[in-house]
Amino acid sequence: MKILIEGGKERYNKLWPKDMDLSMFETYFFERGTSNAEKLAAAKDAEIVFADAISVVDRELIESMPNLKMIHSEGVAFNSFDVKAAAERGIFVCNNKACNAGAVAEQTVMLMLNVLRYGIIGDEMVRSGRQMAFKEERMFKGITELGDCKVGLIGFGDIAKETAKRLIPFGCKVYYNTPHRKDEKTEDEYGVTYMEREELIKECDIISLHTAVTEETKNMVNDDFISKMKDGAFIINTARGELTDNEALRRGIISGKLGGVGLDTIYPEPNTPDNPIIDLPEEYKYKAVFAPHLGGITTSSFRRAHKNMWENAVRIYNGERPVNIVNGI
């Protein structure tokens, strides 16, 4: 059985599950961004596609592969895959649900601590010999402990749940908002309280985004959203860059409405230096803390993901139904 893989061959070889017999598979590797024509020329008859979570798997490719049975994300995201085109042909689209939830939750808390504790500018002050002046300034102006914050989670899936578990020991009051409130048992398990969206935006010191990108959520953090926030509150985004309007974030920082932002995801990806949220005036640049979308790419999360992918490939080989289907087949 042939598998078309859009992703790094060295990474796949490193993460190959050595306890599984995968000798029945032929693999064809392509770098991200390889044209459909090149992929089809080598592996048109493949029955499985493995793709980097931000790779494009479009209708043209799907409709040109007559034997295709499953498209599998190497991560959790799949918004660059044409799930409708796959569903029309009865092709499974699968992801690695929850494989990186704990890892992204760690990144989320790290960004919260960084924006509250002046991690980036603090490092710069030490390196430039200005640490005492900066320390005196912060002693006068103050530093907020994470445990003193009300944290609002927008979305309450696997990553948000793991984030809540890590915030409770800090002493945070953790709130969440979803289209449908969770049951009392779930709220008790994670120590969270439901809040209506408008109230959460207004009341929380830190708002952390954990929702999927849809037509309704794209650019949800815009000027109107920010205007309703508590003065000096923070935005944390470890979900997807498309959830935030970069110009609105910039205006919020420069106006002082936002205390700052911590972003592991920025639109577009790859990013450009002239992005308005990155190309901030010198006096505001430390109000934004960035990470290069590292949240979910720990060694352990990748090992879990690849194990799941190959197990699903074996299921397809055996004529069985895969797990973590995201397109309703």
Helix content: 25-40%
Instruction: Note the total helix count.
Output: 13
Structural class comes to alpha/beta
Strand content: 15-25%
Biggest sheet record? 7 strands, parallel
User: How far apart are the termini?
Assistant: 21 Å
What is the name of the CATH superfamily of the largest domain?
NAD(P)-binding Rossmann-like Domain
Radius of gyration: 22 Å
What series of H and E elements makes up the topology?
EHEHEHEHEHHHEHEHEHEHEHEEH
Mean pLDDT: 97
Structural domain tally = 2
Assign an overall shape. Answer: elongated
Strand order of the largest sheet: 8-7-6-9-10-11-12
- CATH top-level class of the largest domain: Alpha Beta
Unreliable spans are: none
Please identify the oligomeric state.
Answer: single chain
As for the CATH topology of the largest domain, it is: Rossmann fold
Q: What is the number of E strands?
A: 12
CATH architecture of the largest domain: 3-Layer(aba) Sandwich
